Amino acid sequence: MSKVFITCALPYANGPTHLGHLRSTYIPADIYARYRRLRGDDVLFVCATDEHGTPIAVKAEAEGRTPLEVATRYHEMIRGDLERCDISFDSFTRTTDELHHEIAQKFFLKLYEKGFIYEKDIKQLYCGDCQRFLPDRYVEGTCPYCGSEGARGDHCEGCGRHLEPLQLEDPRCMVCGSEPEVRDSRHYFFRLSQFQDEIREWIEGSEMPSNVRNYAIQWLREGLKDWILTRDMDWGVPVPLEGNDGKIIYVWGEAFLGYISSAAAWSKKTGRDWREYWDSGALHFIGKDIIYHHAIFWPALLMAYGCRTPENIIAGEYLSLEGQKMSTSKNWVVWTSDFLERFDRDLLRYYLTVNAPLTRDTDFSWDDFQRRVNDELADVLGNFLHRTFSFTGRFFDGRVPAACELTAEDREFLESIRTAHDTVGELLDKFQFRDALMHIIKLAKMGNKYFNDQEPWKAVKESPARASTCLHLCNLLAANLGKLLRPFMPSAAGRILSIMNLEDEPWGFHELEEGQVIERAKPLFSKIPDEAIEDEKAKLIEEDDEVETVTIDDFASMDIRVGVVRSAERIEGSDKLLKLMIDVGEREMQVVAGLAEKYSPEDLVERKVTVLVNLKPAKLFGVKSEGMVLATGESLNLLDPGDAEVGERIR
């Protein structure tokens, strides 16, 4: 039994998760962790929310909240999203935890004492209007390399390069929009340049996927430069040296240590030593946009400290949406919670895995999602399982029949079943998740063909022994499909094993005894109707249209009034929706509002709200909604009408 240390990139706690996060990082990591556990390995699978840095501070300022309040809200959202997707972390913590601060400060001090951190005066952007130095994420401008507008002071999404704020053309303060000036400030730097040769040797001697290796080598060719390790702000891990009030450790100087602090928190709970797992070689699952940080900066920090460098870095490429780049600011995105309101988590895990290799950019299309679920899960996998279980129930009293004399075709079929775990396991060992899952679907297709070729509906009358053998082998395949699917679709796999009364055994071929009881079961997968897909596409169009300009006549046509909530209740089956009865003066109207993640029904009763009252009625979760309660963006802050009278129109 080997010890395995697996991490996921820390999700940043300034917003909920979307499908791009799941596809690049969390689902692949979970598949691998589940697979290694099934193999009998001792797995430590950790993550945390990254809760420091300027984006959270900027959002907190805009919302009139503290950064901790913002981070706490999104930590809970992110945790909920990942749990609902069956992501099986052993530890999921926060970088605002005291233990994390302690570990990060000790790490910084040791590097400082060893001479890898030094002080230096630098030129830095200063906002005269805000009267403060601007950390990198407080600055936006034009990328000097690719010309992309909206590049941040630390990173350009257009070309993926690491940037410094002073490199930006036409820089602007993100808070007030003014043009900053340049002033001197003293900061701490990490001697990254000293590790050029060691990093190259480490990368060239590793078995990293080509997308990670090629990115890293490209940056090494340009030469590594020392990296500023501190920032002028209050929100973060304080620099643990005297005379540095108002300075924190740069988020990329401490966020990596979330892997360590999460593991250390696990050790405190279990009494087991996380170092034994780390020393076995860590596997980092990340998104393409942070390859530089994990393949260059993080291993250099570990080398400086004297720790083992990661065993491997697996980076998922980008997921676009309906052929366009995802954009959270324009809401051109599918949020995890929204998806799970309508569809099962296993459908999400299946589609995001099977759509393309992890090392290639891919697209999420609602039409293609429907096609693959209907054609591959319902018509292939689900059909094979249902006809096997139904036939067994009808003609063999719900028990697996005996295997009689085997034909050459039977033996070939049996051999494919016997070798399936080895084949899928070899692909998973190489992180080829798509190919592994496609092999399982290929087996189900083979099962359907075998069933059709054997014609057990005829054989049960004309040659009972042939029908018995056919159904024994089909049930054998069904059992092994259930076992094989456990890393990919744990909920569906569990249902298959439950129907067949099988235990959750280690990875490997499963023999099936004659007489094994098969329970009566409904089809495992239902087809997605066209109407459901059209609804989802319409939501995208509506949300995309929100960023378009409107005429004064368009605005005047909206009847927005002050209302007061008279009653509120949760809607069964939904984690987000509440049914509200709202008094808008001349009448009471029923409104379904997506506020349950922030407000309890009791919070809303007798509260004034702003309501769009002439919205076309629609049904959500089978409940009629006659209007819309207005709130701000992802934060769901209700628009407060103040002292305005109930029923008063807003103009």
From TrEMBL:
Gene3D superfamilies assigned: HUPs, Isoleucyl-tRNA Synthetase, Domain 1, Methionyl-tRNA synthetase, Zn-domain, Nucleic acid-binding proteins
Localization (cell): Cytoplasm
Cofactor entry: Zn(2+)
Catalysed reactions listed for this entry: tRNA(Met) + L-methionine + ATP = L-methionyl-tRNA(Met) + AMP + diphosphate
Domain TRNA-binding: residue ranges: 554-651
An annotated GO BP: methionyl-tRNA aminoacylation
Residues that, per the record, bind Zn(2+): C143, C146, C156, C159
UniProt-annotated binding residues for ATP: T328
Cofactor: how and how many bound: Binds 1 zinc ion per subunit.
Location, primary (coarse class): cytoplasm
Motif ('HIGH' region): 11-21
Matches recorded under SUPFAM superfamilies: Anticodon-binding domain of a subclass of class I aminoacyl-tRNA synthetases, Methionyl-tRNA synthetase (MetRS), Zn-domain, Nucleic acid-binding proteins, Nucleotidylyl transferase
GO molecular function terms listed in the Swiss-Prot or TrEMBL record: ATP binding; metal ion binding; methionine-tRNA ligase activity; tRNA binding
Keywords assigned: Aminoacyl-tRNA synthetase, ATP-binding, Cytoplasm, Ligase, Metal-binding, Nucleotide-binding, Protein biosynthesis, RNA-binding, tRNA-binding, Zinc
Residue ranges of the motif 'KMSKS' region: 325-329
GO cellular component: aminoacyl-tRNA synthetase multienzyme complex; cytosol
Family statement drawn from the similarity comment of this UniProt entry: Belongs to the class-I aminoacyl-tRNA synthetase family. MetG type 1 subfamily.
Entries under PANTHER family matching the protein: METHIONINE--TRNA LIGASE (PTHR45765), METHIONINE--TRNA LIGASE, CYTOPLASMIC (PTHR45765:SF1)
Function: Is required not only for elongation of protein synthesis but also for the initiation of all mRNA translation through initiator tRNA(fMet) aminoacylation.
Record HAMAP family: Met_tRNA_synth_type1
Record text on subunit structure and interactions: Homodimer.
Protein's name in the database: Methionine--tRNA ligase
Organism: Methanothermobacter defluvii
Gene: metG
